[in-house]
Amino acid sequence: MKVFVSSDMEGTAGVVDWSQCRPAEPEYAYYRGLLQEEVNAAIEGAMAGGATEFLVNDSHSKMANLRPDTLAGRARYLSGRHKPLYMMQGLDASFDGVFFVSYHGSMAGAPATLSHTYNPQAISEVLLNGVTAGESGINALVALGHGVPVVLITGDDTTAAEIEPFCPGIHSAVVKSSVSRFAADSLHPTTARELIHQAAEEAVRALPRATPPRIALPATLTVRFRNPDLAEMATWIDGIERADAVSVRTTDEDPIRLYRRFVTAVLLTRGIAE
User: Fold this and answer.
1) CA 142 – CA 256 distance, rounded (Å)
2) Which helix (H) or strand (E) holds 178?
3) Is 146 labelled a binding residue?
4) 66: containing domain
5) 1, 84, 102, 197: which sits with the fewest CB atoms below 10 Å from its CB?
6) What is the pLDDT of residues 112-136, one digit of tens each?
7) This model's pTM is above 0.85
């Protein structure tokens, strides 16, 4: 039984500030350790549920945050930037389930600690078929394309709620409650890891009844940028059209092709945003 793990960092219990999850900052070393333990808790819980093989796609910042020799379950480790499928690189139809570990919410709606969608300097909001979608909902397009269910998400309470429209019934481990974008009430790290372990085990045991993400096709992504220049730049990509002064939309019956087009827009607009 194979499990694909996409790991971010902002959803880790105790993380509430950019300085805690940026490699150049002095606090980063401590908090990357907390992330590692949460990833391992998910893997160990999955092993208790019967999973035997793991691929971890490091999906935060420069995507080289974990220590390969201390990954549980002898997991394969996919790290580094410039991946064609970004946070979902490595997933294929051979996997039985997908875990999203230490994910965060979008900037729209209820408060979510360190909320953003891919690039907070460029993107204000993304809608998937008219529903606000964070990175979890957008990434679920790739899982849908391969017919693999997304069965676990860990992070704050807003993050768990945001993925529900796209992956109804998903198991969640809520390790903190967001107070604002830069404050949260977090579980003790040991308690957080115990909760993740339990949720991962339950998710794997329930895999025989799990189904791929529930996203109607053809699907439409609507992206609202922070200014008109960014929206105009996104339309340089075939298949993306202007929706209004600061928004674009793109539609496709192939969810993976749609996702790749979105990622291309993210990478293209990042240059001018920064």
Assistant:
1) 5
2) strand 171-180
3) no
4) 2-114+135-209
5) 84
6) 999 999 999 999 999 999 999 999 9
7) yes
